[in-house]
Amino acid sequence: MNDATLSVGALHAEPGTKARGTVRADLGTLTPDIPLTLVNGSRPGPRVVITAGVHGGEFTPIDAVVRLADRLDPREVHGQVIICPVANPPAVYQGRLNVSPVDGVNINRVFPGDPDGSPTERLAAWLFTHLVDGADVYIDLHCGGIDQVLRDFVGYRLTGAPDLDKATAELAGSFGIEDVIIGLTAEGGNSHAAAARRGISAVLVEVGSLGQRDEPTALRRVDGLLTALRHLGVLDQDGSAPAPIREWVWSAGVTSEATGLWYPEFSFDADIIGDVAEGDVLGRIVDPADGTEHTVHAPAGGRIFYGMHGLTVAPGTELAALAVPWDPDTVAHLDTLRAPGMGAGSDEAGPRI
Questions:
Q1: What is the pLDDT of residues 93-103, one digit of tens each?
Q2: Taking a C-beta distance cutoff of 8 angstroms, is the pair 255, 343 a contact?
Q3: What H or E segment, with its residue span, contains residue 192?
Q4: Amino acid 331: pLDDT
Q5: 0.85 exceeded by pTM
Q6: 43-51 and 318-325: which strand pairing?
Q7: Backbone angles phi, psi at 64, to 5 degrees
Q8: Strands 43-51 and 137-142
Q9: Which of 3, 158, 173, 320 is most buried, by CB atoms within 10 Å?
Q10: What's the farthest any 2 CA atoms get from each other in the chain?
Q11: CA distance linking residue 107 with residue 47, whole number of Å
C-alpha cells in the first residue's frame, strides 16, 4: 500500500484520494494562482508530473489534461500523478502568446528558472522546485500556437546516461504518435531538457495546430496520455502493443530576416506539409509599404514539422523547422545539422538539439 501524503503547497491528497485546487506561487514580484490536481494512488509507483499551459494560445493541451484529471481514479493508480493545466497563467489568461505579457520572456527558454530573476524566470524556478524536481517522469504538453501549423510529434533529449535515455525513448514511443524527434544533447532552457539534466525521464508532446480546442483532438490527446500511463505502470496494462514510430533529428530552423507579410509556399494542412530540398523556396516576405519581396529558401533539406501561419512577421520570427530521419551516422555529421533557433516557435528549438 502507498502510505505517503502527496502535497504541493497547501494542497494535499492522502493515499487513494484526489485533490483539486490552486496553489499560490509567491514570486516576490508576482503571485499567480497555479491550478493543480493531485492524484495519490492507493498503491506505490512512480511520480508523474504533467503540465500544460506553459504557453498561451495552446488550448487543446489544457482541455486534455483537465479531462484526464476527471478520468483518473486514485483507486486504480499506482504511484502519484500531479496535473498542472495552466503552468503559466499570465501567458495563458492575458497574453495568449508564447511570451509572457509581464516581462516579454518565453518561459520555455529559461527553465529551470532563477528564483532571483525576472517574474517569468521566478515562475519557472517555482514550477521546478514545487512540481518537476520531485518527479520520476515529466510530460510537458504543447501544440501549434494560434499562428502555427504543426505535425504531431514527441520530443526528448539524449543525456548520455544509457538507462535514462532508454527509459525516455520508450516513454516517447508510448503515446501512439508516429514521429519522435530526438534532441542530441540536453542543453537549453526548454522544460524537458532542464528536467533531463536532472535525471528525470522527460518528454515534450506536441499535438494539434493553430491553438485548436476541438474535442476530437483533445480526446486523442487523452488517449495518448492514458497509453503512456499504462506503459509507466501507473495504470494497469491493457495488453495493447506499442505503435510503430519514426525517429528524426532537426536539420534546420528558418527565421525571418525582414519585417513584412509572410506568404508561405507550403500547405497549411499539418497532415501534408511535406519534404523540401536545400535551396527550395519556402515562401516570401512582402513589405506592405512598397511591395519589396524577400524570398526565403530552405537552408537544408528535411521534412517541415512546423511552420508559421500568421501573416505578419518580424526579424527573428520562426518561419519553419525541418527534420531528417535519424540514423546512427547522423552523430558523425553534427556540423551539417542546424537546429531551430531561439525564436517564438517550437519548444524543441535551441542550440544543437
A1: 998 888 999 99
A2: yes
A3: helix 191-197
A4: 53
A5: yes
A6: unpaired
A7: -65, -45
A8: parallel
A9: 320
A10: 71
A11: 23
